[in-house]
Q: What sequence folds into this?
C-alpha cells in the first residue's frame, strides 16, 4: 500500500480512494477542518470557541449543556470556553429564566460581530478553495455536499 505525505501527515492511498468511502470522507473532513482552524485563527478564537460562536450564531441563546451537546463537547470544555468568551465580551452567561439550575449563553453585540467576521472569513476561504475548480466541478461538488448533508440529517 502506497503512503504519501500531505500537509506533513502520512496518508495511505487506501484512505483516499473512492472504494473506501469512509476513509475518503474522513480525510476530506480532516483536511478541511484543519484548514478552517488556521483561517479562523485570524478571528482570534480557539477552535472550540469558533464552534460555540458559530452554533450560537445559528441558533441564538442556548443553555450551556445544550450548547455542549450540539457541538459534541464535554461540559468542562464548553464551560471553560464560555468563561473565556465572556471575559472577552463575546457572550453573556446568565441564569436561565426557564430553568434556574442552568446557565443561558447569549452572544453580545461584539460576539455577533465576531461571528459575522468569522463566517465571512470562512466563506472566503471556501470560495478560494473552490475557485481552483471548473464551474462544472463546483456545481458537482455543491450537489454532492447537499446530498451528503441530506443523508447526515436523516441519520
A:
Amino acid at each position: 500500500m502506497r503512503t504519501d505525505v500531505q500537509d506533513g501527515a502520512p496518508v495511505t492511498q487506501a484512505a483516499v480512494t473512492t472504494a473506501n468511502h469512509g476513509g475518503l470522507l474522513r480525510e476530506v473532513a480532516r483536511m478541511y477542518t484543519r484548514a478552517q482552524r488556521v483561517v479562523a485563527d485570524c478571528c482570534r478564537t480557539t477552535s472550540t470557541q469558533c464552534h460555540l460562536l458559530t452554533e450560537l450564531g445559528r441558533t441564538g441563546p442556548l443553555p450551556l449543556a445544550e450548547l455542549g451537546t450540539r457541538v459534541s463537547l464535554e461540559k468542562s470544555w464548553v464551560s471553560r470556553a464560555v468563561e473565556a468568551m465572556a471575559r472577552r465580551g463575546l457572550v453573556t452567561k446568565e441564569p436561565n429564566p426557564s430553568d434556574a439550575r442552568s446557565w443561558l449563553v447569549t452572544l453580545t453585540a461584539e460576539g455577533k460581530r465576531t461571528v459575522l467576521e468569522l463566517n465571512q472569513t470562512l466563506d472566503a476561504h471556501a470560495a478560494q478553495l473552490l475557485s481552483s475548480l471548473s464551474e462544472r466541478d463546483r456545481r458537482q461538488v455543491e450537489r454532492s455536499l447537499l446530498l451528503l448533508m441530506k443523508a447526515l440529517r436523516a441519520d
Remarks:
- The helical segments are 21-40, 47-59, 64-70, 75-87, 109-130, 135-154.
- The first helix runs from residue 21 to 40.
- The CA atoms of residues 98 and 104 lie 9 Å apart.
- The first strand starts at residue 3 and ends at 6.
